[in-house]
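pasting for ref
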Amino acid sequence: MAILIGIDEAGYGPLLGPMVVSAVAMELPDGLLRADLWQVLSKAVSAQKKGLTGRLLITDSKKAYSRTSGINTLRRSVLASLSAWNNGHTPMTTAGDVLGIICPDLLDRISIYPWYENMHTHSLGHDVSDISIAAGMLRKSLTENNSNIVSIRTKCLDVDLYNERVGRVKNKSRVLFTELCSLIYEAFETDLTGSGPMQVVVDRQGGRVHYERELLRMFNGFSLSVIRQDPAMSSYELSRGSKTMRIHFCMKADAKYLLVSLASMVSKYVREIMMEALNAYFCHHCSDLKPTAGYWQDGQRFVRDLAVHLPSHPHVPEKLVRIS
């Protein structure tokens, strides 16, 4: 058996809201490592919206969600995948339930933000029975292929933490790289079962081809060998003691690897429930405010509108607006 992990982020560029990185780990037979998992799990999932017929859409989050199409499809796929992972043992009725499962450290940190004060009770608005059925289909398809989801983990950098990290290193790409390496290191230390090296697939970080220096900086005490470095993929083997893992930075990984797509969707969903809470809070205080997705131009518009409509509101800019 092998361990395959997909990692992707959401919210790298916005002005408002968190940057989120997620990792989805699956245990599967060695022979399925290079397989098209959309095809392997085709009874339960699809990469296309057309012809879903009850299956889960797992694709690049940008295709699964837009402000015009709404959050239902994204929410359904993420919640069903989470339920398939924990076998429904942990109920998921609120945003706090979801965050408590995949990034529990966030719940204590966000107490400093008034706009997140109701996250523990904020309803997800999903169809519980539909999620249960879809999760059951996914579990069944995984079992039929001697596979299972063994972990879903998220690093959510709320604005205060994001600003502190970027302010310290003066480079948000390094902050992102640090967070994804943290997820990899945690998976490695968890000692997930697998007969061969743990395999990790990450969407390529910008246009970078060479990662060995940054990997050695992040994985102190590991030995590293380069497997491949070209515009399509950069692959490395890292070892410490008797344990080994391979990390692959792949161009358009979220379109080629199901687990990277699912990680992208988890990250996007976490960011969206955070933005939903922020918008609900400020729009409750002023009905004239138009909600924002937090991206640069519209985020600036939202900040200007706050200054006009809520000039005396005691929000702290350093906790609302990200530094570039």
